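User: I'm preparing a small set of examples for a lab meeting where we compare how different chains pack in three dimensions. I only have the primary sequence for this one, and I'd like the structure in C-alpha cell form so I can line it up with the others. Please keep the answer compact; I'll paste it straight into my notes.
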Amino acid sequence: MVFIGYCIFYALALVLLNRDIVTTTGMLYPRESETREVRSLDGLWNFVKSDITNPTQGMRDKWYLDDLSRVRKTIPMPVPASYNDITTEHAIRDHVGTVWYDRKFFVPMSWSKNQRVWLRFGSVHYEAFVYVNGEMVVRHEMGHLPFEAEISQYVKYGQENRITVMCDNALIQTTIPQGKITELARDDGVSIVQTYTFDFFNYAGIHRSVHLYTTPSTYIEEIDFTTDLSKNNTVGFVTLAKVKIGGSVDNEAASNDLHIRVQLLNKEGIVVANTTSKSDMTAILEIKNVKPWWPYLMHHEPGYLYEMEIFLIDSNTEELQDVYRCKVGVRTLSWNNSSFMINGKPIYFRGFGRHEDSDIRGKGLDLALMTRDFNLLKWVGANAYRTSHYPYSEESMQFADENGIMIIDECPSVDTENYNQALLEKHKSAMEQLIHRDRNHASVVMWSIANEPRTGQLNAGSYFQYVANYTRQLDNTRPVTAAIAVNSADDKAARYLDIISFNRYNGWYSNPGRLDMITKRIIDEATTWHEKHNKPVIMSEYGADTVEGLHLLPSYVWSEEYQTELFSRHFRAFDILRKKSWFIGEFVWNFADFKTAQSVTRVGGNKKGVFTRSRQPKAVAHLLRKRYFALGREVDECTLIPSDLFTYITDGSSTRSSKHDSTDL
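Assistant: Understood. Below is the C-alpha cell output for the 665-residue chain.
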C-alpha cells in the first residue's frame, strides 16, 4: 500500500495544470507632468540584519511599529544598492534570510487635495514586505521587477512619516530562481547556508530606486500600444490598444464622461500626429514621413524615438484630468523558420550576455556604470544583448531604446528543474510582470523564458509549453526563445520556442585547451538544432575565463591569448553558418567579469568578460570590435568606421624590392 501511495503521489506531482494567475495593474514609470509630482527616496537608510537562526523575529516582535533603531543597533545602508559588499563583515555579505530597512520622509500638505499618493520600488530582491507608519501596504515576491502601492490613506500630510521594509533573500525550490537552504555543522554550532546552481552571486537588498509620486484622483493607470509601418517604411502607425483609467466611478455612464487626446512629437518638439479618442480610450495615430526605430549600425540615426503625450479630459467640462508622457519607437518585427526581421530587413544579432554587477554596489542601480556600459557596447560595435539572467533596470531599457540596442528580455528563471505546479505559476507570474513592464519598449525584440533549464527532465516539455504559450498570449508581437544547454537529442522544450538559442563552451568546459575541437562542433550542433526544429538558431553563449594581464605563448587556458584564439575559432564557425540564412546571431559570454559564489573554480568570480569588472578591455575586446564593425559593414551596410579601429602600421607604398635582407631587422 505504501508503494502504491508513493506511485500515486509521484504521478500527481508530474501533472501540471495551466491555471490562471493574478495579473499586474498600473506600474507606469514615475514621470513628472502638469498633473504629477515625483520624489526620490534614494539615499542612506537605516539597516538591521536579522539573526540567521531566527529570521521571523522581526515579524513576531513587530519591528515595523517603531523606528528600527529602538529595537536594535542600526547601520547606514545606501539605497539603491545590494547590501552584501557595503560593509567589511562576512555575516552581512553571506547573510541568509531577512534584513530590515527604514527611513523617515515628509509628505507635503498640498498632496492631500484631490490627489493620490503612491510608493514605488524599482526592485527588491527577493521578497519584500513594506510598511508605512506601521501598516503593511504591499508585499511582493520576485526580484528585479517593480511593485507599488497607493498609500494615500496611510501617510500623515504635512508631517513626518516612516517607511519600513523587510527583505528576504532566501531561495527555495519554488522561487524564481531556485535555490536550497541547508544546515551545515561549523566549529561552534550550525550554519544556515544558501546554495544555488546558477553561476552569479545572489546579491540582495533594495536594488533600484524608491519613489513617492502623485496622480490625480482620476488618472491614467496603464498604457499599451503597438506600432506598424507601411508604404516602404514611409508611413508609421501607433495603435493605442489600451489606456486604462484608474480612480473613475465604476459605472459605464461615468466612464463615458472621459476621453483622451493623444499627440506625437518628433525630436524637434513638432507635433507630427494627433487624435482624440472616444470613451473606449483607444486611438490610432498615423505618421507621414515617419522615422523608424533602427538598431545601432543599421541606420545613420539609430534608436529614433518620438514622444507621446496622453491627455485625459473630462468630456463634459473639457477640464484636464491627467497627463502622461512616454517615448515611442516605431518599428515592426517579423520572423519565420529561417530569419528575424526589423522593418522588413533581416537582422544578424551580435552582442553579449551580461550581468547587472559591479564592485561594492553589487546589483544596485548605478547610472554612471550603466552609461559606461552603453558607451562600451557602442565602442565594440554590438547591436544587442540578453538580460541574462533576470530583468534589468527600467532605466537601462530606456537607454537601450535611445541607443538602438536590441534586447532579448529574460525572466529570472535560471537552471530551472524539479518542475511542479507552484513553480509553474510563479514562472508565469515572472513573465507576466516582465511583459507588463517592458511591452512598450522598442528595444525589446524577443522574450527569453529561461536560461539553461534542465529541459531533459520528464515533464519539462509540458512545463515549457505552458510558459511559452502563456508568453505568446500576453504578447504575440515578439518571438519566444530560451537559452538551452541540454543537447538537442535530450531536450524537450525547444519545439515550443520560436527561435532556438543554445549555450555551449567548446574549448572550455568541453575539451579545455583544445582549440582544434571548436569550429566543427559548433557548426554541427547549430545545424542539428535547425534540422530538428526548422527554426532560426542563435548561439547565445560561448567564451572562456581569462585573467586580466595573464599572457602565455603558446596560448594556454586562462590567458588573454587563449581567449583571443578561442574567439577566433568561433568566428570561423559563425561565418560558415551565416551563409545559411537560419543562423541569425552570436552572443559572447560575458560582457564583463562578475561576482559568483565562492568556489575553487572561480578566482574572485567569473572571468569570462570581454571587459574587466571595472569595465576596462581585455585583449579580446579589440579583436571582437574589429569583427562586429566588419559585420556591420557587411551585413547592415554600415558606413560608420571608427578612426581608431585599426592601429597604423604602414602606408604600404614602399617602392623597395620585395626582397629582404638583414638591414630590415
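A couple of notes for your slides: The longest helix spans residues 560-578. Residues 1-12, 657-665 have pLDDT under 50 and may be disordered.

User: Perfect, thanks.
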